[in-house]
Amino acid sequence: MKKKACLVVIDVQSAFLGPEPMLTSEGNDLLDKVSALLDKARRAKVPVLYVEHVGFGAERPPEDLISTHPRIAPRAGEPVTRKLYGDVFVGTDFGALLKGCGIEHLVLCGLATNGCLNAACTHARALGYDVTVVEDANACASGYAGKTAAAIVGEFVASWKELGVGLANSRAIDFTKF
């Protein structure tokens, strides 16, 4: 039986995209991949939910850097959940939003593989949601633990498989199947 799905775009904000790029397993192409995912989800009438990290403390950047990157900005009516912590389920109404929309399956993309995206993924699984991570549309900075971004993404993809998380490629994903 099909479960109602949504695309969740996590923390793809200008503040996190420079000066050092956040890289997918294939390089500096996150915005291209997220843009293509948004087109596919919207054509399939799959809800799109955005998450923005605003917990910067005294080092808070200007608002235009905190908002979702303008190239993939939310359209009218697409909800944006702003969070202070790495996990979108903590201190927000995100869980209530999902429940109110009847969402049972989250398709995740965005930032960062080893941070907020991972927190959303693992928390959603713990709450009983079906989760699919777009394995080539999540990104992180190189250098964490001396590893390349591709290596970090690969390690997290392996750990998500162990949790029963589905994986999809951005070019092959078909939102009509959810």
Describe this entry's structure for a reader.
The protein has 178 residues and is of the alpha/beta class. The chain has a single domain, classed as Isochorismatase-like (Rossmann fold), CATH 3.40.50.850. The protein is built from five helices and six strands. It has helices spanning 30-43, 63-66, 94-101, 116-126, 149-162, and strands at 5-10, 48-53, 80-83, 105-111, 130-139, 166-168.
Which key phrases capture this entry?
178 residues; alpha/beta; Rossmann fold; six-stranded parallel sheet; 5 helices
Sequence-ordered SSE layout with sheet pairings:
Blueprint: E1 5-10, H1 30-43, E2 48-53, H2 63-66, E3 80-83, H3 94-101, E4 105-111, H4 116-126, E5 130-139, H5 149-162, E6 166-168
Gist of the model:
The protein is of the alpha/beta class. The protein has helices spanning 30-43, 63-66, 94-101, 116-126, 149-162, and strands at residues 5-10, 48-53, 80-83, 105-111, 130-139, 166-168.
What is the overall shape? globular
How many DSSP H or I helices? 5
Strand order of the largest sheet: 3-2-1-4-5-6
Low-confidence stretches: none
Q: What percentage of residues falls in helices of 4 or more residues?
A: 25-40%
